Amino acid sequence: MKQFVLVLSVVVLLVMSSCSRRQLQVTVSNPSELDRNNELVAISLNNNKLEGDVFSVKDEVSHQIIKSQLIDIDEDGAADEIVFLANLPANASKQFVITTGGKADADDSIRTFARFAPERTDDFAWENDRVAFRTYGPEAQRMAEAGEPGGTLSSGVDCWLKKVDYSIINKWYQGNVDEPGYYHIDHGEGLDNYHVGPSRGCGGTGVMVDGHLYTSKNFTSYKVLNNGPVLSDFVLEYEAYAADDQLIKETKHVSIALGSNFTKYIIEVEGTDTLTVGLTLHDNEGLVSINEPAGWINYHTPHKGEMLSSAIIAQPGYLAGTDMVESDVKDESHALMHLKVIDGKAVFFAGFNWSASKQFTSNKEWEQHLTQQAKALASPLEIIVR
């Protein structure tokens, strides 16, 4: 079965600055014993000046145009990077050419996407060609605290279980406007039948003190940074919350790239030196697997007639330990990963595999995939620009 390697792994940029020109030659090398498929490559346009404002990426050998995207990092309205996905066999290199002008892949249905969704109170939702997620905003919190129907009080992350590679967020939300409950029914594309409640869902965060997990409430504001065919990223702000005698502040920098089952989280953290991220265990009917040497945890469980595996992978260097909380109280059972806060941030990846998507044949294959992702993160691609 075709494997999809986690994108957004750290890359080493060995960039040679140049004068303004019309072409860049890029060599991407895979130093590991693993095949690396659909892995994100980011090339600085600030250090490597190209004339023009339209760019395309081409495989130098096959001459195939590669789907690419311009990224504005500093929000000044100008592109700072160009990103694309590369497939490299173990211990191999490939050459790419970035040129001005040209025509990129015109198929915009296979893409990443992230947006605020006021038609369902005030969700924020994001997706790529393999998975989709959502979380909840301040109006949903207000309604829940006021006891009004339709409110949601949670900073957990919901999984939308899709089995098509095209974008479904707009269609499902519009369907729910036209027919309430639409996205809770599988119309052939998948559905939302994953329960979050006040749990951590798939990748929600908090702080553990004396065996108790303290968490924030709903996000208070959002900002979409980039939205495109290869990568979407955004920022969620949260109000400070108390964890025993500590005051914790989280700002979540969230990104999703094409070809991956995972969301990347870079959490700016104040008030603690350890952040905890969790996977809800729902009714404790599944199997928790922990691989601390590789830096991942996984929960595999029966799910509405199918199987669901949700997982967390730590960015190398951040893992501080793992934990389990089993409770008879609804939504309080979790598999937990503790992360070091380094230079004011914690970094991890959270995602899932739904058996109905046919993306992986078994939980065993999924867990092999998790180990491969962890190894890929520890052995970043090497990039030379000329």
Structure, explained:
With 386 residues, this protein is mainly β. The chain folds into 2 domains: 12-105 and 378-385, Golgi alpha-mannosidase II (Immunoglobulin-like), CATH 2.60.40; 113-373, Beta-galactosidase, Chain A, domain 5 (Distorted Sandwich). The protein has helices at 138-145, 169-178, 363-378; strands at 12-15, 18-21, 23-29, 36-44, 48-50, 55-59, 65-66, 68-71, 81-88, 93-100, 113-117, 123-127, 132-136, 158-162, 190-191, 202-209, 212-214, 219-227, 231-238, 241-243, 246-257, 262-270, 274-280, 287-291, 296-303, 306-314, 319-325, 334-340, 345-354, 382-385. The strands form 6 sheets. Strands 18, 19, 20, 21, 22, 24, 25, 26 and 29 form a 9-stranded antiparallel beta sheet that branches. Strands 1-30-3-10-6-7 form a 6-stranded mixed beta sheet, with no helix packed on it. A hairpin with a 5-residue loop joins strand 6 (55-59) and strand 7 (65-66). The longest helix is centred in the C-terminal third of the chain and has 16 residues, at 363-378. Pfam families: DUF4861. InterPro entries: DUF4861 (IPR032342). This is DUF4861 family protein.
